[in-house]
Write a structure and sequence with these properties.
heterodimer, A: about 475 residues, alpha/beta, Aspartate Aminotransferase, domain 2, Aspartate Aminotransferase, domain 1, 2 domains, seven-stranded mixed beta sheet, 14 helices, about 10% strand, globular, B: about 450 residues, four-stranded antiparallel beta sheet, 15 helices, 17 strands
C-alpha cells in the first residue's frame, strides 16, 4: 500500500478556512526555514487512503479478539454518542467552575461508582492509562512513607507473573524491584513473600486474579504479611473484569488500586489509546491524590486540590472523553449488570478452556477466572511448533491471536481471554479452529512456521526493523 | 438495560454443565467466602439506552459551551474539518488493540508511521514516537531521556506552562531528581540567570515555544548555552506554530515535544489529548513508548511493525526507558488526518490567521484600555494588564454575559488571551467594545 506521502501531488489542496477578515500581518518572530512536507491531497484521496487503512486494521467487530489481559469486549456506540455531545466535547478545561457543572458531576459520579466497585474511599481520574495509574499509585505509596519519615522503605515486591508495567512503574517511582516467585500452582509463594517483606518494604504490587487467570486463595494472608511488615498493598486492576461486583480489592486488604477504563469499562482501545487509568485509595492516602478534587460547596461543584498532593500526572483533570464513555457504560449495566458481566466473562473463559483442555495442555489445572493460559511447550518439544506458530495460524481463521509469551513464568504461553460479550457460537468456532490448527500442525509441522497464509502481508522481519530503524518516510533528499 | 451479555439463561446453564458445574457460585468457589460481597453494589440499577442518553444529555446541558472563546493556555479551539471525525469514527480504528499482530494491523501501523513522519517534518528532527499521554507528560518523559547518572538536574524555564512544570516535578519526584526554575524576565527566560545555573550536573533545559505568555523565546541562543555546558535542550512547541516559526531542529534542540491537541482534537474538558515527541538521531533509542518502523515480510514486501521494543516495559521490565504502554494512538490518527486534510498550505494559513487575529485582538484590547504586558514577538497568545484584579474580574464577567469566554486570569489583574482562526473580526470588535465599557469609564 502506498504511503500518504507517495500519493501527494504538489498544489493539491482543499480550502477549509476563509480568507482573513482582518488586515494581513507580517510576523516578526523568527520564521521556519525548511519547507514543510506534509501530504498534498484532495479530500477524496485523504478519505480513500484512510478507508484503505481501516480495512487493514482489526477492530473488535472484525471478529473474535481473545487477547489475554486486554479485555477486548464490545464497545457500545451509545458511549461514543455521549462523549461526542457538544456539551462535553466543546468545553474548555479552564472554564470557570460554574460553567462546567455537568463535567464535574460526571467526574464525581464516576468516582463514586468506581470507589464502590473497588471498595476504595477516593478516586483520582487523572491518570491517562493503566501504566500511568500504576506510576501514580506508587507515588502515593512513596509520599505516604515519606510523610511518615520512613525513607528507608525503598523496595516494591512484585510477583514474577506480573505485567511488565509493574516493575517498570516501580522503577519510575524510584523503587527497587524485588521479584517474588510463584509456587507450583501459579500463586504467590507465601514463604518467599514472608522472607522478602521487611522494614525496607514500601509495598507489594499484585494482580488478582493473577496473570495466569487464577484467583489467589491466600490473598488475605498475602496482604496481611505486607501490612505487618509496614508496607502497603497495590492492586493492579487489569483483571478486574473477572470479579467486579463479586469481591472488592478494598475488602482483600489493598490500599491503592488502578483501573483500566479501556478494559473493564468498555471504552475502546483506539489502536493503543486513549485509555484512562483511574487510581483509587483508602482514606488515609486521600490527601496525596493528584489532579483536581471535586467538592461540593454551597450547592456548586468546585475544583479543589488535595492537601498533600503528589502534583499532577498530566495537564488537566482526566481523559474526560473516556470517563464519559465509562460512565455511560456503568449507567447501562448498573448494579446487577456489574456482577453479571463478571460472571459471564468467567463462564465464557471456563467454557472455552474446557473445550480446549483435551487438545492443548493448560498451564494450571484449575477453574480459571476471566482468562486461562495454555502452554505449547510439549508441542514444541514434540514437533517444533511454537506458541507463535499456533497464534499466527489463528489469523487464517479470522481470529485475533491470544496474548503470546506472557506471563513469563509459563513457557510457550498463549493467554486467552474471551470476555463476556462473545456468544457461545463464537467460542465453539474458536475451539474448532484451535482443533483444526493442531491437526494441521501434526500433519505438517514445517508449514506452520510460514503461517499466516491468507493475510495481506506475511510474517514481518522484526529483526531487520530494529537493527537499522526506519521510523519515518524518506523524501529522498 | 444494556448489559451486552449474549448468553441466555439456558445457554448459561448448558455452558456451566459443560464445565461440570451447577451454578455461578461454583465458578467462584476458589474465592474465600468471607471476602465475597453479600449485598448488591450501591450504584443505580441499569438503564435502557434511551434513559442513559437522557441522563448524559442532562449532564451535558449543565455545561456552558461558549460560541466565542479567547482562552487557550494549553487547550486551543481550532477548526476541525468534517473529514477528521469521519475517519477517526471508523470502528476499526476506534476499537483495535495496540498493533502487536502486524499481519492484521498494517492500517494502524502505517497510520502511526505517517504520523511519526508528520511530527519529524513539523519539528525538523530525525525520529518521533507513536505519542504519549499529553504535552505535559511528553515534556516530563523528555527530561527523563536527558537524565543520566552524572547529570541529574533539570532546569525548567519560568515561562513554561505551570501545568507542564507540575507534571515534570511529579515525574522527578519519582526518580528523586531535582528540578530548578530559571526565572522569567520581561516575558521570556532570563538567559543571564540561565547561564549561571547551567553546570556539569545539568541534564537539560526545558523551554516552551511560544512560551506560556505567548512570547517567542530565543531558543537558538539557549540551545547554544545549554550545549556549551554539556546539557540538552528540550523544546515544548505548539504544533500549529511550527508551520511558521523556526523549528526545534533549526534551533538546535535535542528533543522536541508538545501538546498535539490543536491538531484536530476537541478541547473536551482536558482530554484525551496527544503528547508528541521527536528527537535527533543520537537520542532516538532513548525515546519512550511505541515506535513504528518499516521492514519487509516473508515475501519481501514493505510493511510496518512496532520496533526497538527492547526499550519497552514488556521486554525490559524495571530497566525500561519508561513504563508507558497505552499511548494516544487514536488521537495521533486524528492529528495525522487533520494534517493530511489541511496540507502544508492549509496549516500555514491557519497559523498565520491565528497570528494576525491575535495581533488584531491585542491592538483592539489595548485601545479599549487593557495594556499589553510584553513588547515582544508573539504567536497567538499575549498578556494584558488591567488596573487591578477586580477590574480584570469585571471584564471577564461582562464578557461572560455576552457569551464570550475571555482571557485566563493569571492574578494581579493580568489576563492571558488567545485568538485563533475561529475568531471573527466582529467577535473581536464586540469584545473590545465590552472591555472598553468596563475599563474606560
Amino acid at each position: 500500500m502506498k504511503l500518504i506521502f507517495e500519493e501527494s501531488a504538489a498544489g493539491r489542496h482543499t480550502e477549509y478556512l476563509p480568507e482573513p477578515d482582518i488586515p494581513a500581518v507580517e510576523p516578526d518572530f523568527r520564521p521556519r526555514q525548511k519547507k514543510l512536507r506534509l501530504p498534498e491531497l484532495s479530500e477524496v484521496q485523504v478519505d480513500r487512503h484512510y478507508t484503505a487503512l481501516a480495512k487493514e486494521t482489526r477492530g473488535v467487530n472484525g471478529g473474535f479478539y481473545p487477547l489475554g489481559s486486554c479485555t477486548m469486549k464490545y464497545n457500545p456506540p451509545v458511549n461514543e454518542a455521549a462523549a461526542a455531545l457538544p456539551g462535553f466535547a466543546s468545553v474548555h478545561p479552564l472554564q470557570p467552575d460554574e460553567t462546567v457543572q455537568g463535567c464535574l458531576e460526571v467526574m464525581r459520579q464516576t468516582e463514586a461508582y468506581l470507589a464502590e466497585i473497588t471498595g476504595m474511599d477516593a478516586i483520582s481520574l487523572q491518570p491517562a492509562a493503566g501504566a500511568h495509574g500504576e506510576f501514580t499509585g506508587l507515588l502515593l505509596i512513596k509520599a505516604y512513607h515519606r510523610a511518615k519519615g520512613d525513607a528507608g522503605r525503598t523496595k516494591i515486591l512484585v510477583p514474577d507473573s506480573a505485567h511488565g508495567t509493574n516493575p517498570a512503574s516501580a522503577a519510575m517511582a524510584g523503587f527497587e524491584v524485588v521479584n517474588i516467585p510463584s509456587d507450583a500452582d501459579g500463586y504467590v509463594d507465601l514463604e518467599e513473600l514472608k522472607k522478602a517483606a521487611g522494614p525496607d518494604t514500601a509495598g507489594l504490587m499484585l494482580t488478582n486474579p493473577n496473570t495466569v487467570g487464577l484467583f489467589d486463595p491466600n490473598i488475605e494472608a498475602i496482604t496481611r504479611t505486607v501490612h505487618e511488615a509496614g508496607g502497603l498493598n497495590y492492586y493492579d486492576g487489569a483483571n478486574l473484569n473477572a470479579i467486579m461486583g463479586i469481591v472488592r480489592p478494598g475488602d482483600m486488604g489493598f490500599d491503592v488500586v488502578h483501573l483500566n477504563l479501556h478494559k473493564t469499562f468498555a471504552t475502546p482501545h483506539g489502536g493503543g489509546g486513549p485509555g484512562s487509568g483511574p487510581v483509587g485509595c483508602k482514606a488515609f492516602l486521600r490527601g496525596f491524590l493528584p489532579g483536581i478534587r471535586v467538592e461540593e460547596n454551597g450547592g456548586l461543584l468546585r475544583r479543589g486540590e488535595a492537601a498533600a498532593r503528589i502534583g499532577d500526572v498530566r495537564s488537566f483533570g482526566s481523559n474526560f472523553g473516556v470517563v464519559v464513555k465509562a460512565l455511560a457504560y456503568l449507567l447501562s449495566i448498573g448494579r446487577e449488570g456489574v456482577p453479571r458481566t463478571a460472571a459471564n466473562a468467567v463462564l465464557n473463559a471456563n467454557y472455552l478452556m474446557n473445550r480446549l483442555k483435551g487438545l492443548y495442555p493448560m498451564a494450571f489445572d484449575a477453574t480459571c477466572m476471566h482468562e486461562f493460559v495454555m502452554t505449547l511447550e510439549p508441542l514444541k518439544q514434540e514437533i517444533g511448533v511454537s506458541a507463535m506458530d499456533v497464534a499466527k495460524a489463528l489469523l487464517d481463521y479470522g481470529i485475533h491471536p491470544p496474548t503470546m509469551y506472557f506471563p513469563l513464568i509459563v513457557h510457550e504461553a498463549l493467554m486467552v481471554e474471551p470476555t463476556e460479550t462473545e456468544t457461545r457460537e463464537t467460542l465453539d468456532a474458536a475451539a474448532e479452529a484451535f482443533r483444526a490448527i493442531l491437526e494441521d500442525a501434526r500433519r505438517d509441522p514445517e508449514q506452520m512456521h510460514g503461517r499466516p497464509l491468507t493475510t495481506r502481508i506475511r510474517r514481518p522481519d522484526e529483526v531487520k526493523a530494529a537493527r537499522k530503524p526506519v521510523v519515518r518516510y524518506d523524501f529522498g533528499d | 438495560m444494556g448489559i451486552y451479555v449474549p448468553n441466555t439463561e439456558q445457554e448459561q446453564r448448558e455452558m456451566l454443565e459443560a464445565c461440570g458445574m451447577q451454578s455461578f457460585e461454583d465458578l467462584y468457589a476458589g474465592i474465600p467466602d468471607a471476602l465475597k460481597r453479600k449485598e448488591p453494589l450501591a450504584i443505580p440499577a441499569g438503564k435502557p439506552e434511551l434513559e442513559v442518553r437522557r441522563a448524559m444529555e442532562a449532564a451535558a446541558r449543565k455545561n456552558r459551551v461558549y460560541p466565542t472563546v479567547f482562552r487557550g493556555a494549553g487547550a486551543y479551539r481550532h477548526y476541525i474539518p468534517a473529514i477528521v471525525g469521519e475517519v477517526t469514527g471508523k470502528e476499526e480504528f476506534r476499537t483495535a488493540y495496540t498493533p502487536y499482530q502486524a499481519e492484521i494491523s498494517q492500517g494502524v501501523l502505517q497510520s502511526i508511521f505517517e504520523f511519526q513522519t508528520d511530527i519529524c517534518e513539523l519539528t525538523g528532527l530525525a525520529a518521533a514516537n507513536a505519542s504519549v499521554y499529553d504535552g505535559a507528560t511528553a515534556a516530563a518523559e523528555a527530561c527523563e531521556m536527558c537524565r543520566d547518572r552524572k547529570r541529574r538536574k533539570v532546569l525548567v524555564s519560568g515561562t513554561v506552562d505551570p501545568k507542564t512544570v507540575s507534571v515534570v516535578r511529579t515525574y522527578a519526584f519519582g526518580r528523586d531528581a531535582e528540578v530548578f526554575t530559571v526565572p522569567e524576565k520581561d516575558g521570556v527566560t532570563d538567559t543571564e540567570a540561565l547561564q549561571s545555573m547551567l553546570d556539569g550536573e545539568t541534564a537539560c533545559l526545558l523551554i516552551q515555544q511560544p512560551n506560556f505568555f505567548g512570547c517567542e523565546e530565543d531558543a537558538e541562543g539557549m540551545a547554544e548555552k545549554a550545549h556549551a555546558a554539556g546539557a540538552k535542550l528540550v523544546m515544548s512547541c505548539n504544533p500549529i506554530a511550527l508551520a511558521v516559526m523556526k523549528t526545534p531542529g533549526e534551533c538546535g534542540a535535542d528533543v522536541a515535544v508538545g501538546e498535539g491537541q490543536p491538531l484536530g482534537l476537541q478541547t473536551s474538558f482536558g482530554g484525551p489529548y496527544l503528547g508528541f515527541m521527536a528527537a535527533d538521531e543520537k537520542m532516538m533509542r532513548r525515546l519512550p513508548g511505541r515506535i513504528v518502523g518499516e521492514t519487509t515480510d516473508l515475501n519481501g514486501e514493505r510493511c510496518f511493525v512496532l520496533t526497538m521494543q527492547a526499550r519497552e516495559q514488556h521486554i525490559r521490565r524495571e530497566k525500561a526507558s519508561s513504563n508507558i504502554c497505552s499511548n494516544e494512538a487514536l488521537c495521533a490518527l486524528t492529528a495525522a488526518v487533520y494534517l493530511a486534510a489541511m496540507g502544508p498550505e492549509g496549516l500555514r494559513k491557519a497559523a498565520l490567521s491565528c497570528h494576525a487575529k491575535a495581533v488584531y485582538l491585542r491592538n483592539a484590547l489595548a485601545e479599549a484600555g487593557l495594556t499589553p504586558v510584553h513588547a515582544r514577538p508573539f504567536f497567538h497568545e499575549f498578556v494584558t494588564q488591567a488596573a487591578d484584579e477586580a477590574q480584570a474580574a469585571a471584564v471577564l464577567k461582562a464578557l461572560d454575559g455576552a457569551d464570550i469566554l475571555g482571557g485566563l486570569p493569571l492574578g494581579g489583574g493580568k489576563l492571558l488571551w488567545c485568538a485563533t482562526e475561529m475568531n471573527t473580526r466582529e467577535e473581536m470588535d464586540r469584545t473590545a467594545a465590552i472591555v472598553k465599557e468596563v475599563v474606560a469609564p
